[in-house]
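fyi for ur records
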Amino acid sequence: MRGLDWDGYRNVRDLGGLPTPLSPTGATQLGRIARGPRRELLTDRGWQDARRWGLRSVIDLRCADEVGRRDGDPLVAPDALAGITVVAAPTEDQDEPEFREVCFPILDSPEYWRHNWRILPDLVLGALRAIADAPSGVLVHCSAGRDRTGMISTLLLAGAGVPPTVVAEDHAASVRAMAGTGTHAPGDRQATWDAEQVTEWLATVTPIVEDVAADVDAAFAAVGADDDLRARLCARLTTP
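which gave:
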């Protein structure tokens, strides 16, 4: 139920169906928020698949210069996104000097997450607000659907009471899904990785994801997320 079959679109999952004590059903709610890679990979049929899931809004975490069709992307009908709200909510400012110096060497690792919200808290907060304000049936995506989307998904899931080990498993699923593919960011070293390299990498970074999820209160405090915003994000995933 969590893995979604949207044509042309690998690494897309529903954030529902994960255990949490904060929901009366014992699990995060399906059909509320999905995570994925760049939306330009969706075919016409993929957009139809997404609509059947209930897609109503897209939160794009990418910088403006990353947005748009590339060579090899499918051609879609002009009305493919009709009725779907797309919100630009970048979590990075790649011209910010400290962000470039500190984060660029580790942008494919959750090591950079805490630096991201320390250096650019307003951008991370803006993305969280955009998700809270969006019509339900939300797709959150970046380029690979692994790093920026992983950061935001970790905050959403941990904030909804999903155990840190389970949050880290969700992150690992995206690393595995995108390794060895060339469909996302040019120059991404993980595009050439095999299964053994992925396993070694996850052994290193999974504890970081677990630590972030276990200390999610600190993350929300760092970006300035107030109780109302946190409650709205939690309710999106926990209220039947």
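The longest helix spans residues 195-214. thats all i got for now
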